[in-house]
Specification:
By secondary structure, the protein is an alpha+beta fold. Helices cover 38% and strands 15% of the residues. The chain has a domain of 142 residues. Bound molecules: iron/sulfur cluster (SF4) (2 copies).
């Protein structure tokens, strides 16, 4: 357990990192990998299931692997939030994080506050995200139970909503940085998911941004 907390720097900053979305959990944060444990956390309203996109190459063809992980819940988002425009973390209060430092998700505990707000992490993000691979079936079962859809069906559905909301400028609660990142992601992903992008372009009746499940 590391101890990078610096209340003075973070109080002056006002929680910029938390305003750009909830922090991610490390596999090592989870005490027990069973459905009940995850469901309790999701039903508490403090966490969501999110998708991490891992680009890899199979037989010379680029491919996106969707890895499910847990994150702190963003405001106006539900338990299943695989991909959406980032809004501030719902656990950010007027006096800082709802959680005491050592109870925060690992990606927050490993962020090193910098007096010039060029904060950085000591984690290797990719290797931490890949550790979630072995727990996919538990998270996939929860998605199936809550939505009736498989991981990829749910991801593609949310991706179409994500594209739609960017194209229709539904940026409620999102920071300028989150909006820029959403545009960047749209430009990256539309090459891989042409059908979802095309449908988002033409479908004026797509679901709206703040849908909760
Ligand atoms: S870690 Fe950095 S960005 Fe986050 S609240 Fe502290 S100073 Fe601000
Ligand atoms: S859980 Fe706490 S540290 Fe993590 S993003 Fe939310 S407010 Fe910030």
């Amino acid at each position: 357990m590391n101890i990078y907390e610096n209340k003075n720097i973070c109080a002056k900053c006002g929680g910029k990192c938390c305003l750009e979305g909830g922090c991610d959990y490390l596999v090592s944060d989870i005490e027990e990998f069973n459905i009940q444990n995850f469901c309790d956390l999701l039903e508490s309203g403090k966490a969501s299931i999110k998708a991490i996109l891992n680009e890899n190459e199979i037989e010379s063809k680029k491919n996106i692997e969707v890895i499910l992980i847990l994150k702190s819940r963003n405001i106006n988002r539900g338990a299943i939030d695989l991909i959406s425009i980032e809004t501030p973390c719902s656990l950010l209060t007027a006096t800082g994080c709802f959680y005491p430092f050592l109870k925060r998700p690992g990606f927050a505990r490993h962020l090193i506050p910098d007096p010039n707000y060029e904060c950085y992490s000591d984690l290797n993000y990719k290797s931490e995200y890949l550790k979630w691979r072995q727990y996919q079936s538990v998270l996939e079962n929860i998605i199936k139970e809550k939505t009736g859809l498989s991981k990829y069906e749910e991801f593609r559905k949310e991706l179409e909503e994500f594209f739609y909301n960017i194209l229709h400028r539904n940026f409620e609660d999102a920071s300028v940085k989150s909006i820029k990142e959403a545009h960047f992601l749209l430009n990256y992903l539309k090459r891989y998911y042409e059908n979802e992008y095309e449908r988002a372009l033409i479908n004026s009746n797509s679901p709206k941004l703040n849908k909760k499940r």
